[in-house]
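for the recovery benchmark. tokens below, seq after
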């Protein structure tokens, strides 16, 4: 299942779409990851350690959202 999410992430990043559309798709991907793997709302070191590959993908997706980057730099 993780491979499908990784492929989806790759397809989003390679798609010929504007930044707003990309952010929407990345946000939807994060939501789907949260549901599929029951990622806790609050950062949980124990969960993160047991699910390192999932959390790496989740952080990669989060870090590629432009709207989040702009908010953090203002």
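predicted aa per position
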């Amino acid at each position: 299942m993780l491979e499908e999410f990784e492929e989806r992430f790759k397809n989003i990043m390679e798609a010929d779409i504007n930044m707003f559309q990309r952010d929407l798709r990345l946000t939807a991907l994060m939501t789907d990851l949260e549901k599929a793997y029951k990622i806790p709302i609050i950062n949980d070191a124990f969960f993160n350690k047991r699910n390192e590959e999932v959390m790496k993908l989740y952080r990669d997706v989060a870090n590629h959202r432009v709207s989040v980057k702009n908010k953090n730099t203002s």
